[in-house]
Amino acid sequence: MSPSHQRKRRARIVPALALTAIAAVAALAAFVVAPRLNDQSAFGSADVTAPAGADGAATATRGAAATSSAPYTIKPEPTKVATDAPVKTTGGKVDVVLTYAGFDRTAGTVQAGGLVTGVLEDGGTCTLTLSKGAVEVTATSTGAADAASTTCGLLETPSGLAAGTWDAVLTYSSDDAHGKSDAQEVTVP
What we know:
By secondary structure, the protein is an alpha+beta fold. It has 2 domains: about 5-60, no CATH class; about 90-189, Immunoglobulin-like (Sandwich), CATH 2.60.40.10. Helix content is about 20%, strand content about 40%. It is built from 1 helix and 15 strands; from the N terminus they run αβββββββββββββββ. A hairpin with a 4-residue loop joins strand 6 and strand 7. The longest helix has about 35 residues, at about 5-35.
């Protein structure tokens, strides 16, 4: 291509790029300014009801914030509030739920957790018992009062359990309550 042909081509490209840039700036300005010209915010219209005028009728304005010369009064806190019903803590025989039990490959242990309903207390003993034939392995944790139950937290057996299917049962005992979960199978690879 000859040098004069390159100059002509460049002379056509530069104005086209300039026009594109001007169009982009104009579109951005239209997006920001146009809603204000139409009494709208950039994100939609804003209808505001102003306080009642001298004739008692409320007036609607578009795009303007309503103002009031009336003083703001802080209202007292309500005396009645919505609350949950109290948790019944029966003690005695309670329901124990084994919420999860499974083998953790990283630790090489069986980990479990659960909760006790019917009692809300700290200090009881949660015991996870794994049994396979005549072999039993246990893990314990201390119960802790939660919002509506007593939780057992993490129970973890020692590592090195024999491979196979184990039956897991969670029991809870304290001075005031005792209970036992249904058995759950746990597979150790």
